[in-house]
Design brief:
The structure is a homodimer. By secondary structure, chain A is α+β, with helices and mostly antiparallel strands. Chain A folds into two domains: 164 residues, CofE-like (60s Ribosomal Protein L30, Chain: A), CATH 3.30.1330.100; 73 residues, CofE-like fold. Chain A has six helices and twelve strands. In chain A, helix 1 crosses helix 5 and helix 3 packs across helix 4. Chain A is globular. The N and C termini of chain A lie far apart (43 Å). The interface between A and B is large, with 90 and 91 residues.
Chain lengths: 262, 262
């Protein structure tokens, strides 16, 4: 019962070097491939490598910008913005992302997006979007799983080894200060590892253990990507996430009937 | 604007080898030190290394067990357990951890503990607690920051280099399936990195960016620790968390007036 396990288990997270400023229409998969070639030790890819790409560059490449000058805020957005010292056009854009408003207080608007994510400000991003004027915001990718798949397929074709891909975003959470990076898109592996039915080290069944592997991979990547550096892509090596081509981020989303915090 | 940043940024996570089964009264800091010596590449420690120790072994060393045979469940616990096919004595133990019941539905009891954590089942743990009989559960450490500090101090004395320490626990979350490891105790660094007031790559202020560094470090560690292996301690190298001796996990906890999900 007390013996050590097999040899050391290691995980390595490498920030890829030299991703340039990304613009609408750029071939992001090619930029990621170039950065893999440029980064010492990244190649050859291993079968269980995971490439983590931040939402911001995915959205930029896909041109998911909104020019606030084109936005006519509804009266509710104007009133809320005035009360909490926000930009009414930004509030309007957030409300347009919502299939449901979860909470609207303290200047925050927490919405459920059409993807099924519950996000402060609907994932709408006004920082680091490539405009010093503040007149532009960036939306989430249309289909983050598809964005991840496109990168996975192109990188796989180029290097002959097919990595997992995560599209990550920085999310707040109830009860705790601070944002963490979590997965909003996934390709090539299952975002949850289900250990129910397996037996723990004491021979008891692990009834409640479903690990949010994709989210933990996104968080590990954030530690090298940070927020200010122009480093939007990381390689996570050694996480060995569960195989599962065809899975998607919807595996992670809790259906309304199990959601105790609607 | 588009040049690459400084050289590659790397993070390494190393599962320590050879932590034995931990029992009440064991000197956990010595066991961690022995494991650091046993694990290839762990020593010498670097000033910004962080040692992540899972709650389970901290609680075991501190003897935070409850023998369910000694527990008399209140009527509310009996009724709830019967409805959701749970052990009434376990429900009773969970309720005794609560300063406030946040939600009680679907067989789950989400409580605020006296530490200020909001946790499913109050952090009470019935798996992997070293008993195949199921008659024993494990509580959270009394003061996880103090547990982390004790390990930090002892490891620092032994090796002459003082690492950060995180005590981690596996937590569920609203809206998403799956558990992630987060920090419940911290020593030697600030659990939040506050980037407000810094300027992003476009010259705009990053108004909403407070990074939950300790939580991300705990999540990264979980990727090598997993749930079934007897690997309760990891070394995270390269995260460079913000200095801050004297900080504690309470920095992370949101006060009631900002909590939109009470």
């Amino acid at each position: 019962m007390s013996g050590p396990g097999p040899g050391p288990v290691r995980l390595e997270v490498i920030a890829l070097d030299g991703i340039p400023e990304v613009h609408p229409g750029d071939d992001l998969a090619s930029l990621v491939g170039d950065a893999l070639e440029r980064t010492a030790g990244a190649l050859p890819l291993r079968p269980d490598d995971v490439i983590v790409v931040t939402q911001k560059v995915v959205s930029k490449a896909e041109g998911a910008f909104v020019d606030l000058a084109t936005i006519e805020p509804r009266p509710e957005a104007v009133a809320y913005a005035a009360r909490w010292d926000r930009d009414a056009r930004q509030v309007e854009v957030v409300l347009r992302q919502a299939v449901r408003v979860v909470r609207m207080d303290h200047g925050v608007v927490i919405v459920e997006t059409r993807h099924g994510f519950i996000l402060a400000n609907g994932g709408v991003d006004a920082s680091n979007v490539g405009s010093a004027s503040g007149g532009v915001v960036l939306l989430l990718p249309d289909d983050p799983d598809a964005s991840a798949r496109a990168i996975r397929d192109a990188v796989g074709r180029r290097f002959g080894s097919v990595p997992g891909v995560v599209v990550s975003d920085s999310l707040g959470r109830p009860w705790r200060f601070g944002i963490m990076d979590l997965a909003i898109g996934v390709a090539g592996f299952r975002p949850l590892e289900d250990l129910r039915g397996t037996v723990d080290a004491d021979g008891r069944s692990m009834s409640a253990t479903i690990r949010a592997v994709a989210d933990e991979i996104a968080s590990a990547a954030e530690l090298v990507l940070g927020k200010t550096a122009r480093r939007p892509v990381a390689l996570v090596r050694g996480a060995s996430p569960p195989a599962g081509v065809g899975s998607g981020i919807s595996d992670v989303l809790m259906p309304p009937e199990l959601d105790l915090f609607r």
